[in-house]
Specification:
five-stranded mixed β-barrel, six-stranded antiparallel β-sheet, 25% helix, 35% strand, 362 residues
């Protein structure tokens, strides 16, 4: 069908000037008697000559075949710059075909977008090139639509990149995890070529909760921007938690504690995995039942309480003096507290050395 249409086009282009010439010459015979014959003949000759320059096929090129350039109304390109060969069907000998096909036409739109170009603009660029001659046939639509095709990444592949990174990091920390609410931002269509991704970049402090990884995209080594992969990562661990609600200052016993698998995503402090590391500690705030305990929730229990009678040991070299005192505040091991000397009434600073004993160094 295409060959048939092209043949009709060529037949019409070749013989239209001839028919026009004979038609006008016929009328010229009629007008000759009234003095208009020479004018009509002259017009018919100029018209036929002008049309022939524009659309007649070229056999003067020496290749024995006509050269036809048909610009497509809708053309797909995959480069930033496109040429005549990208948007037109060219029927010409190989040596001329390559030269015609390489004529630059302009810039294509972004990948996935369509750009409308006026046919006159395409025609002027072709005719302005030195390889083009009036003996060639050029067909150009009034409007050409240039579409930039491209390539992209499959969402499943990008999710796999995210999961692989998270899994590798979780194995280092020893946590179980669950990924949900995965999303991609910045993904686009990219030019044809070797498409590649950089190593994931994580800018957050902790790999839990909302996690975002950044990756650079390149085509043939040329940077094409950045995409981000985001997902919510839930962390699960075997941690120490309370069997019942306790208030601030409560001293923890074995009956208050258990180890269970809990979601520790929203815990801000370091969680605890052993009950032995928690026994005897005191809560720094009130904690609800089934709440994972963290380091910032507990503290050492005080060895001394305010008002306790204590033994004050004052030493300097080999000299040691022992007396009694009263603790003016609670004190943990190795903490410095204020102690009142019972005999003198003087308040001194002393270091808690054990239950009911403080040391003073001179």
């Amino acid at each position: 069908m295409r060959f048939y249409v092209r043949s009709v086009k060529r037949f019409t282009l070749h013989f239209l000037p001839v028919f026009t010439l004979f038609f006008l010459m016929g009328w010229s015979c009629f007008f000759y008697e009234i003095g208009l014959g020479r004018w009509v003949v002259g017009i018919s000759y100029l018209h036929a000559t002008e049309v022939g320059k524009k659309i007649t096929g070229s056999k003067a090129m020496g290749h024995g075949a006509d050269i036809l350039i048909e610009v497509r109304e809708i053309a797909q390109v995959n480069h930033r710059k496109y040429t005549l060969g990208d948007i037109a069907d060219i029927d010409a000998p190989a040596v001329i075909l390559d030269q015609l096909a390489s004529i630059p036409m302009g810039f294509a739109p972004r990948p996935g977008k369509v750009k409308a170009v006026q046919g006159k603009r395409i025609q002027s660029k072709v005719e302005a090139n030195r390889i083009f001659s009036s003996e060639m046939t050029l067909w150009v639509p009034d409007q050409i639509y240039v579409e930039r095709v491209g390539q992209s990444f499959d969402e499943a592949r990008l999710r796999e990149v995210f999961e692989t990174y998270v899994d590798r990091e979780m194995q280092k920390m020893g946590f179980d995890y669950l990924i949900r609410e995965f999303s991609i931002r910045g993904l686009d269509l990219y030019p044809e070529g070797r498409l590649s991704l950089s190593e994931p970049l994580f800018k957050g402090k902790a790999l839990k909760g909302r996690v975002t990884l950044y990756l650079n995209v390149a085509v043939g080594g040329e940077d094409q921007g950045r995409i981000s992969l985001t997902g919510w990562v839930d962390l699960f661990d075997e941690v120490v938690c309370l069997t019942r609600p306790l208030s601030r200052g409560s001293r923890l016993t074995a009956a208050d504690l258990k180890v269970a698998r809990m979601n520790v995503t929203n815990e801000r402090g370091a969680t605890l995995r052993s009950v032995q590391n928690v026994l005897g500690k005191v809560l720094t705030r009130s904690v609800r039942r089934e709440t994972p305990l963290t380091m910032n929730m507990i503290t050492e229990a005080p060895l001394l309480k305010k008002g306790d009678m204590v033994t004050v040991v004052a030493s300097r070299g080999n000299l040691k003096i022992v007396t009694l005192g009263i603790a003016n505040e609670d004190g943990k091991a190795r903490e410095t507290i204020r102690v009142e000397n019972i005999k003198s009434g003087k308040v001194i600073n002393a270091v808690v050395a054990g239950e009911s004993e403080v040391h003073v160094f001179y």
